[in-house]
Each structure stands twice: as C-alpha cells, then as structure tokens.
Amino acid sequence: MARTLFTLAAAVSAVAPDADIVAVAPLTENSTGRVDAVQATLDTGAQVVIRVATDPEAGDDLRADARALRALTPGVRALLPYSAPELLGEVPLADDTAVITSFIAGYRVDPGEVPAGPGVAPALAEALAATHALPVSWAREAGLVVRSAEQVRDEASRLVDRAEHTKRMPRALVSRWRRAIADDDLWRFEPTVVLGGASSSSFFLDDHGGVPTVVGVVDWHAVAVGDPAVDLQWL
Q1: How do residues 143-173 score in pLDDT, each as one tens digit?
Q2: What is the average per-residue pLDDT within 219-225?
Q3: Can you state the percent helix, strand and coil of the chain, rounding each to 5?
Q4: Distance between CA 24 and CA 5 in Å, rounded?
Q5: Are 5 and 39 in contact (CB under 8 A)?
Q6: How far is CA 138 from the centre of its chain?
Q7: Residue 53 vs residues 59, 109, 127, 229: alpha-carbon distances, Å
Q8: CATH topology of domain 111-232
Q9: Which helix (H) or strand (E) holds 87?
Q10: What is the predicted pLDDT for the residue at 14?
Q11: What is the distance between the alpha carbons of residues 142 and 45, in angstroms, rounded to a whole number?
Q12: Whether residue 61 has pLDDT greater than 60
C-alpha cells in the first residue's frame, strides 16, 4: 500500500467531521495493487471504505465508479434486490482524490468455486437479472454510454481488428471471432443496463436461511447500456 492506513482514514473527516474513527484496517480486494483501500469504523458504528487509485487508469475507473454511484437515485436503488455502495464523498489529496463509500459486508466466491445447482449460481443470476432490468431511460438521463446491438457488434469487430494487428492472437481464434461477428443471429439482442466491469469480486453474498443471497454489488465504473452477455464473461 503506497499510503498509510491513517493517511487514507484521515480523509473521512472531510465527509463526517463530527465522527471519530475507532478502528482502521486494510481492505483486501482483487485490485492487483491498482487501488489503496482501507475500511474505517466510526464511533457511530458506521463502516466506510476509502479508496485512492495508484495509477491514472485506476483513477479513471474510480472516478467513473463515483459518478455511477451518484447516479443511482433512491428510486433506482429500490428496484434492486441488493445494496450498492452509497457515495459519501470525494476528498482531494495531495496527488489524487479519495473516494469514500459505505461498506458492504458479505463473502465472495471465486468463479471456479461456484457450485452447480441451487445456491450461489441462482443468486448471481437473480442479481444480474435485476441489474439488466433497470430502466434504460435512467441510463440515458444519467448520461451513461448507450450502445445499440449494432454498435456493440461494430465495437467487437474493431477489437478483433486491433488484436489481429498485434500478430499475437492465434489465427484460429481470429477466425472464430470473425464467424461470430458475421452471424446476424448472435447480434439480435435487446440492449440492457449492464455492469460492464463485473468480476467475481463484485458480488457480496450472505446466507439467508441457509440459502446464499447476493446482498451487495460493487464495481459500477463501467455501467452502461449494451450486451447483457458482457456481465457473464468472468464466469
């Protein structure tokens, strides 16, 4: 961690000046070192998360995440069966900006450990289905990226072009993708709201009556309207 725990925790005073921090701990995330993150417990009992990017690309993602969380109005949040972090504030630091959100408790499951049958898989499917059912009109009004099926197809074609030009993509894989892009049936989908950047670390679960349930979803930095299949690419 490039910054000390207490340097990050001090940012909380800017959004909760009357609260005292009673505990601070590093927050372990699947961020590959791109984000410094700590969890702070306040004297009110509330728990918050402070994140600061360690490189420009991560900074862009963190700011996009903050914009998306700000766009999640109470009405939109009420449509979701899980919690999304509440954006508490953005605090300028000497060299970057700290993003402060509410903390979501729960456990996460790696893709290779998702068991077949009832349990985790249906819980993930329910959470994604609810996300995909959010109104596209909300995304437009929030200024999010909205892509038609044809635009998604064109974007995929350009991506394959770039990959092919690197000379590192196996020709068999290039051919497979070319065939997929040429198949009209594969691109007759209805665009929906998608998380876009979801991974196994995005979903927090808890057991209700012994049944796994998604209680929280993080990583909203790439939320947009597009191909719902993109949210399954990590499985």
Answers
A1: 999 999 999 999 999 999 999 999 999 999 9
A2: 97
A3: 40, 25, 35
A4: 7
A5: no
A6: 18
A7: 5, 24, 27, 28
A8: Aminoglycoside 3'-phosphotransferase; Chain: A, domain 2 (3.90.1200)
A9: strand 87-92
A10: 83
A11: 32
A12: yes
Task: Locate all alpha helices (DSSP H) within 72-135, ordered by sequence.
Answer: 74-77, 120-132
Question: So what's the pLDDT on residue 7?
Answer: 76
Q: State the pairing for strand pair 211-217/35-42.
A: unpaired
Q: What are the structure tokens assigned to 36, written together? A: 């410094």
Count CB-CB contacts under 10 A for residue 92: 10
Q: Domain ranges in the chain? A: 5-102, 111-232
For the residues 179-208, what does the mean pLDDT come to? 95
Contact 213, 124 (CB under 8 A): no
Output the CATH code of domain 5-102: 3.30.200.20
Secondary structure class of 233 (helix, strand, coil): coil
Phi-psi region of 219 (alpha: psi -120 to 50; beta: other; left: phi over 0): left
Q: Decide if pLDDT at 125 tops 90.
A: yes
**Phi, psi dihedral angles at 169 (to 5 degrees):** -90, 125
